Amino acid sequence: MDAVIYEDDEVLILHKKSGIPVQTKRAGEKDMVSLLRNYRAEKGEEPFIGLVHRLDQPVEGVMVFAKNRQALSFLNRQVLQGKLEKHYHAIVCLQPGERVKTGENYTLTDYLIKDGKNNCSFVAEPSAPRAKKAVLSYRFLKQREGLAEVLVKLHTGRHHQIRVQMSHGGYPLAGDRKYGGDRALQAAEGNHIALCAAKIGFIHPKTLKKMEFSVLPENPIFRKLKD
Q1: Which residue in 4, 1, 16, 6 sits closest to 192, CA to CA?
Q2: Hey, where are the domains in the chain?
Q3: What is the pLDDT of residues 86-118, one digit of tens each?
């Protein structure tokens, strides 16, 4: 399976492509969990795949899956403790003529409410019912022609968190039809969001060693900001 970049008896690491859901209930639609189960079955292995974390369907990037229930439990504890490290690269839209300062770290803290019926989230007051704290940090890496590449680190794992918080903070992601508005649509390359889970770090459930894996974004919009 071309998407797999590492595996052993405990974990499986892959580069999820944009447009493929991690898991879906839609009949006949392929998803990563079912593809990986088939991949293991074809190798004569028990087709167990433990879902540790998620990526939105239009988002690409590196993911870790567990290959047995013990590994899944171990990795899930890291998620709950905030020890599963995730770094993202994104292309955001700037205001006309805006210049940003590269290399400086910024933090966004908001309270988000998930609307499951409409599959979206929105920023709310901290005291609002069902509002959950969402924190991320980011820094600008480079900019060109009204766009900027941003490195984002998640400190919490909320529904659509990066997309919602960056848009609310004035920097919508290029290609984000749900939260980005006109600027994001005009900057789009194809139907994909300019967001990539570029790096993941975790403690291995068997060896207890720190492991890190990274991928390069495939969305062609990232090439626009190459030096």
Answers
A1: 16
A2: 4-225
A3: 999 999 999 888 999 998 999 999 999 999 999
